[in-house]
Amino acid sequence: MGQTRFANGRQLDLICLGRLGVDLYAQQVGARLEDVSSFAKYLGGSSANIAFGTARLGLKSAMLSRVGDDHMGRFLLESLAREGCDVSGITVDPQRLTALVLLGIKDRETFPLVFYRENCADMALRAEDIAESFIASSKSLLITGTHFSTEGVYNASVQALDYAEKHQVRRVLDIDYRPVLWGLAGKADGETRFVADQQVSAHVQKILPRFDLIVGTEEEFLIAGGSTDLLAALRRVRELTAATLVVKLGPQGCTVIHGAIPARLEDGAIYPGVRVEVLNVLGAGDAFMAGFLSGWLEGADDEQCCRLANACGGLVVSRHACAPAMPTRAELDYLFSSPVPITRPDQDLLLQRLHQVSVPRKSWKQLFIFAFDHRGQLVELAQQGGRDPACISHLKQLFIQAVERVEADLQDQGVAADIGLLADQRFGQDALNAATGRGWWVARPVEVQGSRPLAFEHGRSIGSNLIGWPREQIIKCLVQYHPDDEPMLRLEQEAQILGLYQASQVSGHELLLEIIPPKDHPSSHPDVLYRALKRLYNLGIFPAWWKIEAQSAEEWQRLDALIQERDPYCRGVVLLGLNAPAEALAEGFRQARSSSTCRGFAVGRTIHHEPSRAWLAGEIDDEGLIRAVQAIFVQLIDAWREARA
């Protein structure tokens, strides 16, 4: 392929115009849609998936569509923005709801889906929504076929094409033929992929000459060409446009046609697909397009564009969902560098891990975390004060108010930091509910307090408990672990930790491991903490976070080197307090000042023990407690900042 020329100096690589809705995927694979009991919520819509996928692959992509002024619309905006996609071209429609789709995975050939799109927001896109300056800011514009299916979206798409041609923006068509969205199949029949219709063919053919690149499946080129014979359809398309044609051939791969249509597709270059075990074909085409465009927009040749496209499609068909299943560059590099074909991506542990850790994640600044996940200690204080332990729930809600005040103080001072908390489910559920959804770092414990060997509060089936957790909440697990423990104890604890880590990989929650070697352990071997972390890494356990005691500056250097060598994706280390005096913690902060992995502190009893005792004893009221907790929390923050100054 001759290298496509793109205009220079453009802010964006790609604008995607088209469907933007919510996919609700059945979680029970093999069930009829009628029998499904739960769904997972993902960003969806062909254009949106492509915008999402190209952003994940490093392109500067943008979305041009509408969403409703509703919870699902906000979810879509946040999902795209979090991935790095420009959402300035998305209009919030106060009159219509965001589109929804229900999807199931019955077997390898059956994928029922039902579109809930009547009078939905993205189909209300109008010509006046299209800003000329926005289109002119991009190298390319992609439009999917659905957005030519009604008069309103047709006019909007044509307006975008007019601006694109005026400003030398390359135009891409994803034919994306869904008969149900053209009124050619039953309302609940979203699965049917081809219904011949000459009116639709004639309608599509009107816009074919306006594109530089046209991509579709065999069935989609049949509708575009108005024939049930693929070669005849391609020849008709070629009569109408000189565009590069990319024909997707399913598991066989794809072919790229620049000039005349060959007598047989096999006479041209067929770029083979990636052989994988298929779970879900829905979204494979969107992943293919994202991969192809990631090469095309960077000037790659046909072979490389198709290699990227086929790899992206192959990975997505092996996973649940579409947009969240899109691969990163790190995943593709790993796939391409593998000495043997990876036919079961779902069983490749490193690939699974890369899919979690190499995607865009919230960036945390220095972390100031108030840990009040204590249970037994607060029960003892309540009993000493003659109070019903049930009041601890209210106590922890007061802690939230203290955290709010500390955050407000930091913002007033212009301090670049993030606030966090650790709270338990037993007494802190209301506090967790109040903290979630506001951008705080939030974690909750799973261990039975004081257990050794490690036990979980809700039994061994930790994964079933995580189902009910908000995804943003971090799993915190304290383990009294020593690498020189008696073998049976060590192996039992390691099995529990490994099981927890694997459960976190499935649920998508980040894991924080708090490692506290027992103080009364008979072993006198040095470097206990260093060896403990190294041992867990050797077992294939890679927590997002570590929580450890204060270390010397020299030991921090060794720990930094270990973490950077074994897990460059580690989110960092936070210092625990162990009820140490503030002065002792300040010294620990100073020792960690040069650490590249220590991100902050997570301190509890040093902050809340005395205020809690006084409140439970009736010596101070709610406001007194809030002020006391706030003062100690601020004192520790000041000590941290002074150590890092």
From TrEMBL:
Domain DUF2090: 331-644
Top-level class of the enzyme under EC nomenclature: transferase
The organism's place on the tree of life at top rank: Bacteria
Residue ranges of domain Carbohydrate kinase PfkB in the record: 13-328
Keywords, sorted A to Z: ATP-binding, Kinase, Nucleotide-binding, Transferase
InterPro entries assigned: Aldolase_TIM, Carboh/pur_kinase_PfkB_CS, DUF2090, Myo_inos_IolC, Myo_inos_IolC-like_sf, PfkB_Carbo_kinase, PfkB_dom, Ribokinase-like
Pfam families assigned to the protein according to its UniProt record, in alphabetical order: DUF2090, PfkB
E.C. numbers: 2.7.1.92
An annotated Gene Ontology molecular function: ATP binding
PANTHER family in alphabetical order: 5-DEHYDRO-2-DEOXYGLUCONOKINASE, HEXOKINASE FAMILY MEMBER
NCBIfam families from the UniProt entry: myo_inos_iolC_N (TIGR04382)
Family: Belongs to the carbohydrate kinase PfkB family.
Name of this protein: 5-dehydro-2-deoxygluconokinase
Species the sequence originates in: Pseudomonas gingeri
UniProt lineage: Bacteria, Pseudomonadati, Pseudomonadota, Gammaproteobacteria, Pseudomonadales
Gene name as annotated: iolC
